[in-house]
Amino acid sequence: MVVRRKGEVLFLSVLMGMAGYLFYLTFSLSPSWYQPVGAADYSRFIFVLLEIVCGLRMFKIFRQAKFNEKSTLDNKIEIKRIRNCVLLTMLVIFIYLIGLTSLGYFISTFLFLVICMWILSYYSLKIIPKAILISIILVALLYILFGQILNIYFPPRVLLF
């Protein structure tokens, strides 16, 4: 059994080791007087979740090596497409953050969601109507949840529309 992704296995091993060590360190934290759960419990949950995810990924890598399955990431064209999607998504996030103060939260979020869904569908134009509908529903749900139910209002610089 030859593992072609030795770098990924090494990275996951180091990450799992760090998560295990940090999990061990959380037992030295004591809860405060008015905190029934304690500050370390959330951290422990995150570290256990990280261990599970890394372990599942390592299991998949070794399974692929055992059965000589070809991974989709081994294809150079697929790697290039993913790299372009990641770079374009980072650019869209930057533009979204700038647009929050000029366009407002709801319009910026609507545009951000539509563009991200289009990017993640590998620039397929068929997804645009679905993306618009899903974005309208999500923005409306955010408005209802925060503006109407929880009464959390946005700062004056962040316009609604």
UniProtKB/TrEMBL annotation:
DUF1468 domain: residues covered: 14-155
Keyword field: Membrane, Transmembrane, Transmembrane helix
InterPro entries per record: DUF1468
Keyword RNA-binding applies: no
Record flagged with keyword Disulfide bond: no
Annotated TM spans: 9-30, 42-62, 82-99, 105-125, 132-154
Entry protein name: DUF1468 domain-containing protein
Species whose genome carries this gene: Aerophobetes bacterium
